[in-house]
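Reply to dn_fold:

You asked what the input looked like. This is it:
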Amino acid sequence: MAQHEGLAQQTNDPKPPYILALDVGTSSTRALLFDATGASIPSVLARRQYQLMTEEQGEVAVDGDDLVALVGQTIDDALRLAGPMAKQIGAVAIDTFWHSLIAVDGNNRPLTPLITWEDTRPHGAARELAHELDEQAVHARTGARFHASYWPAKIRWLTKTQPDVLKHTAQWLSFGEYLYRRLLGRSLCSLSMASGTGMLNRRERTWDKELIEVLGVRAEQFPQLGDVGDSIQGLTSEYASGWSVLRDVPWFPAMGDGAAACVGSGCVTTENWSLTIGTSSAIRVVLPPEQVTPPMGLWLYLIDSKRGVMGGASSAGGNVLSWLDTVLKLPSLAASEPLVASVQPDSHGLTILPFISGERSLGWHADARMTVMNLNVHTTPADLLRAGMEALTYQLGAVYTVARDTLKLEQPPRLIGSGGALLGSPSLQQMLADMLGTPLYPSKDHEASARGAALLALESLGIIADLSQIAPILDEPFQPDAARGAIYKQAAQRQQELYQKLLG
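and this is what came back:
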């Protein structure tokens, strides 16, 4: 596949100053080095995997201190790999998963595990809030629905199930702020991260007063807000000696991973849209946040004070495919690719609602569960895996249609694909091109979130003037096939009919 015009994905002639980029995902944490042009340095990539704590009632969490330690290990690894280049690191940038929550006391000691976006236990609390408040008005202010993934439902649920936590909570933090409290002794909550909590009045750039009052919490329990360029310097004594090269450089506040992925894959205008499938999946478009009020099925978060990101996310993505792969005792997903490719579109006759971790866009049923209809004695593991991929495609197709209709674009956008689950499967990429009826351009940068965080740091430092001038790095597109697309649209209608019967 030919490479389109753009900055080199990797460089063997790196230009300082370098940016150490930390990418904290829901299954692994990475540390990478980027040079002053935003190109990655291939010799510096450290990765550590971890397991989330799960239970049948819907818990999906991780010990916050364990995750801090893991991030520290990736930093150790990256600095060792960087060798002499480490002395020319000019800043640290970080992106983390959106929507996480941890309560800390006055000494920044954790009172709860870090509760992730995937945790569905607060779904009842979300319903309560939707009955008590005008959800449409809250959505217009915050860009977010009431849902188990967001802070309002999480805080309401903790208030009812663990009242002692509320009594001793000095602040509510997401992982980015908690990490900085441990490493630097203080933190800022970026507008990007705050916008993903469901608690930020995105127009006033303040924590939402009505939600604070209804939840029975105090404004001072929420972290200090800052923009993307508001950095912190000075490591705590615990880390200053081991990371002396990072002690006096600016550490930029944590960004939401989805926002960073848009920037890193070259999607910073309405012409280029980001389609990502990692653990979860999403379609996002960057635009001025005052330009649009999103429909109730979609959300609107922030990259910074000038750039918003509208879209929809599904809690289903690579997690569904990994689960199917494990349960069906197939080879690895990569090794199973020929099996998937051998199955013709919708030839299996299966209909799947892929809500293995509840539903977000478009219907926001956090308590939804995965459903498989029309199994028979002839159904094969390859059929199930193929049907799972197609089910993800239909969900993203619904988000794409609503987003396009909202913006009323004269021309279809260029869709740029990123995320390990998507880029690892040519079959899935082709399905999406067919279903959406438009070419899908795979990003050549497989670390889009980390690169996005690094590019935002370079822009804040004044080294890069305008991110919109940086061309995306793309492979040749997967072209849509109209005949296959027609088959998928019929199957998507069948999925929608099942959805209506079960969830309304």
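The first helix runs from residue 64 to 82.
Hope that clears it up.
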